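R.M. (postdoc): so does anyone remember the format we settled on? I'll just put the structure tokens first.
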């Protein structure tokens, strides 16, 4: 999945676009420098907060990224990618119940938001709630059967259950949808 924020109509000017270029090139320090200047201490632009959060995540700065993502969601409650990333950050920080709350809020806004279903499944797997994880991954798959991400999540689910047949089945699907991802899954097969 491409986590690089995309410029939108009405987005900030050329500095913002340059920061996005830096993110796309993996030059996070330069992106953060520009975005810090744009954001200032009290930015009210959800896109700037989100872009900076993506750059911060790439640098492993989860706490700071989480703060920007909370602001992004508060500033623009319909900005769905911020929910996905906030759920991921909360999961990474061991705040699974908060992650569930954020991801369910996203799903309440857009039931078809596949990314939220996938991260929600990850949270449930982390909590040892395999059936809830499976339900989330299967929902994501039913929404977008051609999206490789739910197949990858299902592969990890099958691996966690020791189901090599299920893992192989998802590997075969991924060979067609995303050969690179399938190659990574192939390393897990016996």
């Amino acid at each position: 999945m491409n986590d690089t924020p995309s410029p939108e109509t009405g987005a900030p000017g050329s500095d913002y676009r340059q920061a996005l270029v830096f993110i796309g090139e993996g030059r996070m320090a330069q992106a953060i420098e520009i975005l810090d200047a744009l954001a200032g201490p009290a930015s009210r632009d959800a896109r700037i907060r989100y872009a900076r959060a993506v750059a911060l995540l790439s640098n492993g700065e989860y706490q700071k990224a989480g703060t920007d993502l909370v602001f992004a969601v508060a500033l623009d409650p319909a900005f769905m990618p911020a929910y996905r990333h906030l759920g991921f950050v909360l999961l990474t920080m061991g705040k699974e119940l908060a992650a569930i709350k954020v991801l369910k809020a996203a799903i309440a806004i857009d039931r078809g938001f596949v990314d939220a279903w996938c991260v929600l499944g990850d949270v449930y797997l982390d909590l040892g709630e395999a059936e809830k994880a499976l339900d989330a991954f299967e929902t994501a798959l039913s929404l977008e059967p051609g999206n490789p991400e739910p197949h990858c999540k299902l592969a990890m689910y099958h691996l966690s259950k020791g189901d090599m047949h299920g893992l192989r089945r998802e590997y075969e699907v991924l060979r067609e949808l995303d050969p690179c991802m399938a190659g990574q899954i192939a390393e897990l097969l016996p």
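R.M.: ...and that's the designed sequence above, right after the tokens. Also worth knowing: The chain is about 75% helix and 0% strand. The domain at 1-76 is CATH 1.25.40.10 (Serine Threonine Protein Phosphatase 5, Tetratricopeptide repeat).
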